[in-house]
Amino acid sequence: MEMHQVRYFLAVARTLSFTQAAEECHVAQPSLSRAIIKLEEELGGDLFRRERRLTHLTELGRMMLPLLSQCFESANAAKQLATSYKKGKCAPLRIGLSHSVNMQIVIQPLSELVRAFPGLELKFFRGTAGEVGAELKSGAIELAIACPLPEDWERLESWDLLTSASSLRLAAIMRSP
Question: Which helix H or strand E contains 80, and what residues bound it?
């Protein structure tokens, strides 16, 4: 199944006209018809009942409509996200927080960070200091907030955030260019 076939199916389902759908999709009507036929072959049945100028969805077509609509919308959302990411409008930041860190301490600074960088998308991992350290070392997260990590390594940079009986450290892997 190809995305142009799904797009053509959705256009025909919306307009109930192969001619109008072809115009809307900016393709020749025979090309649109061939793509629909290939899609029908792949799905194992007719999607439309074609009666001269009257086109109707078959039972299979009605069943496929919500699924193919969702498929098309998801593909467009993925494409839009990839474009935003390439343009720097969307930047995911994966943060590890040890269970010993009270979320109330980090909510305000992270909220300010998100306000300052509107495209920033925060993702969190919670675990023990050892689990957070392992995630940081593997590259699954870029930033960690934890009590001292169980081990140091060459590419780890860390800074004290709080000084008290239990010190809290911010750690990040510095990536080579």
Answer: helix 59-86
Nearest CA among 14, 39, 37 for reference residue 25: 14
Q: Do 74 and 96 have their domain in common?
A: no
Q: Given a cut of 50, is residue 176 above it in pLDDT?
A: no
Q: Phi and psi for 134 in degrees, rounded to 5?
A: -65, -40
Alpha carbons within 13 A on the beta-carbon side of 106: 19
Task: Clarify whether residues 110 and 71 are in a common domain.
Answer: no
Which of the listed residues 38, 65, 86 is the one where a domain comes to its end?
Answer: 86
Q: How far is CA 11 from the centre of its chain?
A: 25
Helix (H, G, I), strand (E, B) or coil at 1: coil
Question: Would you say the pTM of this structure is higher than 0.90?
Answer: no
Residue 158 DSSP SS3 = strand
Per DSSP, the residues of 28-73 read -HHHHHHHHHHHHHHHTS-SEEEETTEEEE-HHHHHHHHHHHHHHH
CATH number at residue 11: 1.10.10.10
